[in-house]
Design a protein that fits this description.
It contains ten helices and nine strands. The protein is of the alpha+beta class. Helix 1 packs antiparallel against helix 6 and helix 9 packs across helix 10. The longest helix is centred in the first third of the chain and has 21 residues. It is flat, with a radius of gyration of 27 Å.
Length: 334
Amino acid sequence: MQPTAVVRETIARWQEQLLQLDRRNNLLYFKPGTRAVGIAATDVDVFVERLTGARNGLRFAWAEPRATGSQRPRGAAIATVPQAYVLPGDIETDCPPVDLQRRLKKLQKTDKEWLEEQGVNVLFLGVGLLTWVDVDGEVARSPLLLVPCDLSQPSPRDHFSLVREADDATINTTLRYKLEKESGVTLPELEDPESAPSRYLAAVEELVRRRDGWSVSREIVLATFQFSKLAMWEDLGRLKDEEMIEPLVCSLAGDRDARAPQSGPTGAVYEKSVKDLAGGLIDDAIAPGDQLLALPADYSQVLAVEQALSGQHLVIHGPPGTGKSQTIANVIGA
């Protein structure tokens, strides 16, 4: 159906809420701290090209702290002075080798957790930093280009290696939206992801050079940036501009005249109480020959599959271990 102005405004609000435009977002208010590593590179183009061309990645310096005893008179306590055994790598950074090891471990752990739990990579090289002033007069710094990367370490006694992911570099979409909405500054799009980063940085520099307190630096930082909701943000942006939108979405977005989902043929079965679930009632409601299941399923899971097959909208909800993924697999298979 054709969406109303209320529906489009609601979708735009959903889209904005996904990006988290406050000071907690390090895509907007980046503060290095101990969860980031500054890369010392004299030329951003050369460094990114080296990283892209390195099959096994570029190595960081490796360090192992060692304690050495100092000479003391007999009977006196022995003082230990920590020293580090350092092997140089391919990348120069802004922190000592022992501290570097700790930071890289934190970054790798955070990236691994996000990959396992959300299925997204959050480790990026931030190439070029924009210093800008927000509507409250606070100075902020934000990465401009984001190059997806990975950290590998075959064993605890091996170098950490920085590996370029296969995905293209992207601009900081969150920053672009924030600046356009609040400051009237529209950052340029990245026309060619494989072009030299300095070209994009120069374009942004030219755009903001007349603004007091705004500048572009050729810095490179390795940090985690949460882009997990970017795909949803882009989907909502496309949906907002569609000429026709599903009635269910219009209804959720506040259109009271949108057609509500109709009850399916299995709707009456769902009204049975938990006590009624025993005794093979599922076979009475749905013939065994019509239960198209790739994996074992209990009563509620079979009903969920049947409701999906009947064309109804549904939400599958339950605590961990109750078979949500198994039910989704059955829906796909059926």
